[in-house]
Write a structure and sequence with these properties.
Length: 90
């Protein structure tokens, strides 16, 4: 597990994230909302990308759900390596 040093690591992480947000804001209107995304989705009409995780079921009454763009469909075969995984699907 990676240890996060709040004094130094958090500052550099936030700095990098703000650079990304600043870049996006130069090209389009950008608003960042902080808080519970499920609560926000209940109060606003939102579109989301489907995530194959149990917590996705917490989203209700979404305006749109977009499929996750799988390169290959998930399957129960071995995932030892990408090339082995890809080769079994051909």
């Amino acid at each position: 597990m990676r240890e996060l040093n709040i004094g130094t690591d958090l500052e550099s992480i936030v700095e990098e994230e703000f650079k990304t947000l600043q870049d996006l804001a130069k090209r389009r209107d950008l608003t960042v909302y902080l808080g519970d995304p499920y609560e926000f989705a209940q109060q606003n009409s939102v579109a989301v990308t489907y995530a194959p995780v149990p917590s996705f079921a917490k989203f209700q009454d979404l305006a749109q759900i977009h499929p996750y763009p799988w390169l290959k469909s998930p399957h129960p075969l071995s995932i030892r390596s990408f090339s082995a995984w890809r080769g079994k699907l051909k």
